[in-house]
Amino acid sequence: MDRETAMTPVRGWKKFMLDFFDVIAFVIFVTGIIAVIRIYVFQPFAVVGSSMVPTFHEDDFVIVDKISEVERGDVIVFVPEGQKLPYIKRVVGLPGETVRLQNGKVSICETNEPNSCNVYTEDYLPEGTTTEARCGITSFDVTTGGLFVLGDNRGFSTDSRCCFGLGCYSGSNYQVTDQDMIGKVFMRIFPETQLFNDEQARWGIQ
Fold first, then answer.
1. pLDDT in tens, 14-65
2. What residue spans define the domains of the chain?
3. Which of 4, 34, 98, 167 is deepest in the core (most CB within 10 A)?
4. 15, 50, 51, 84: the active-site residue
């Protein structure tokens, strides 16, 4: 009569090795998931500098959403053309628009429609905030695939107004392109947790 095949428990060092490899496989699996999420979905950043005060401060820790569509009023993280470090700014101008800086105010116009301009109301800024032109340029056309961005701390922000510190007269780009983009700020998790959604990015035109 044939003997019934049976499994016997693994003991000793063999059991230890099997458990060890199970743990290693689990760690690799979890690490792979985290890596995929970080590369393609969410990525953490620490804020450096004061260009987004009062919305964000030095050493705030934020999570960037890398897949959602960017809209006006969103705060984005990107690496400008000609720079190496990520910047954090707010989206003001969209493709097909012209952003004009006059008398301390921002106006949004339809490109090639000079009579279409309206003052841009930014409720997220402190009352009395003014936006002055930089580098002698007061009008910026936003082209396909581009964004015009400003820091909330308008007096101390290196942004689209002067081509992110490179000087627009040198031929550098004042727009944030798809290639520059990392994503938009989804959440601050330090020093206090706060979600940033469409309601908090509310904007209007008068």
1. 666 766 666 777 667 566 565 555 555 678 999 999 999 999 999 999 999 9
2. 9-40, 45-205
3. 98
4. 51
Residues 131, 125: Cα–Cα separation, whole Å: 11
CA distances from 113 to 93, 109, 116, 175 (A): 15, 7, 6, 20
Q: Is residue 51 among the annotated active site residues?
A: yes
Calculated CA dihedral for residues 194, 182, 85, 200, nearest 10 degrees: -30
Q: How far apart are CA 57 and CA 49, in angstroms?
A: 7
Distance of alpha carbon 67 from the chain centroid: 11
Catalytic choice (89, 107, 157, 184)? 89
Q: Is 84 a catalytic residue?
A: no
What predicted TM-score, i.e. pTM, was given to this entire model?
0.80
DSSP 4: P
